[in-house]
Amino acid sequence: MKKQLLLPILFFLAACQPSKIMQTWTASDHQPVKYKKILVLGVLTPADNELQIKIENHLAVDLYNLGYNAVAANQVFPPGTFVKGDSARAKAAIADKGYDAVMTIVLLDKKKEQVYVPGRVTDHSYYLRYGRFDRYLTEVSERIYTPGYYTEETKYYWENNFYDIVARKLIYSARSRSFDTNSRNSLAHTYGQLLTENLIKSKILFAPDLSDREK
């Protein structure tokens, strides 16, 4: 009975997971490197400029808090520095600032979908185990008389690449998905944490001592 009650809750919570790495690739010959200066660069359309800035800033802060000297592109480069197709200009700008690694965040696609939200999702196993029948009836009544509703949410599909500028090659790539929440700050924060954790898990980066951080 407990398992039957928990399954709908688990499926509901899994569907609500704000961000998720779908697949990753890592260069087979790569070993973790203590990069001195990492550029966090978002590649989104002008319509999503606000989201781009928030994601760049949050990921840069997440990496910085772990001891990496990471900088958001919007903090050091003027708008238009990284324009479509102008790779020579982009490479020159990066080399001039002394970056030895670049993390790109590319928005591949975004889709709006209608999602059904249940009125109540409650684990009643506590009441069943301890014989709280009166409390159980109250909770069930509240649940069945609290209607669900449909809401519109946006799914974002991302590609994240990590380039070693010194070695001149791609060493990490990931495809990921995130949901638009009520706050873009929240979306950017959870997404930044997700990428940071995966970069460490994939052995692209490791957390150095804070005393070794480059200023």
What features would you describe in this structure?
The protein has one domain (22-117, 152-212): 3-Layer(aba) Sandwich (Rossmann fold), CATH 3.40.50.10610. The protein has helices spanning 2-15, 49-65, 73-76, 87-97, 125-129, 133-144, 184-201; strands at 19-26, 38-43, 70-72, 101-117, 149-164, 169-179. 38% of the residues lie in helices and 28% in strands. The radius of gyration is 22 Å and the shape is elongated. The chain is built from seven helices and six strands. Strands 1-6-5-4-2-3 form a six-stranded mixed beta sheet. The protein is an alpha/beta fold. Helix 2 links the parallel strand 2 (38-43) and strand 3.
Give the CATH superfamily.
ABC-type transport auxiliary lipoprotein component
Q: Which stretches of 5+ consecutive residues score pLDDT under 50?
A: 1-16, 126-130
Structural class: alpha/beta
- End-to-end Cα distance: 57 Å
Return the CATH architecture: 3-Layer(aba) Sandwich
CATH class: Alpha Beta
In DSSP terms, counting alpha (H) and pi (I) runs of 4 or more, how many helices? 7
Major β-sheet strand ordering: 1-6-5-4-2-3
Topology of helices and strands:
Layout: H1 2-15, E1 19-26, E2 38-43, H2 49-65, E3 70-72, H3 73-76, H4 87-97, E4 101-117, H5 125-129, H6 133-144, E5 149-164, E6 169-179, H7 184-201
Parallel strand pairs: 2-3, 2-4
Antiparallel strand pairs: 1-6, 4-5, 5-6
Helix pairs in contact: 2-7
Features:
215 residues; alpha/beta; Rossmann fold; 6 strands; 28% strand; elongated; disordered N terminus
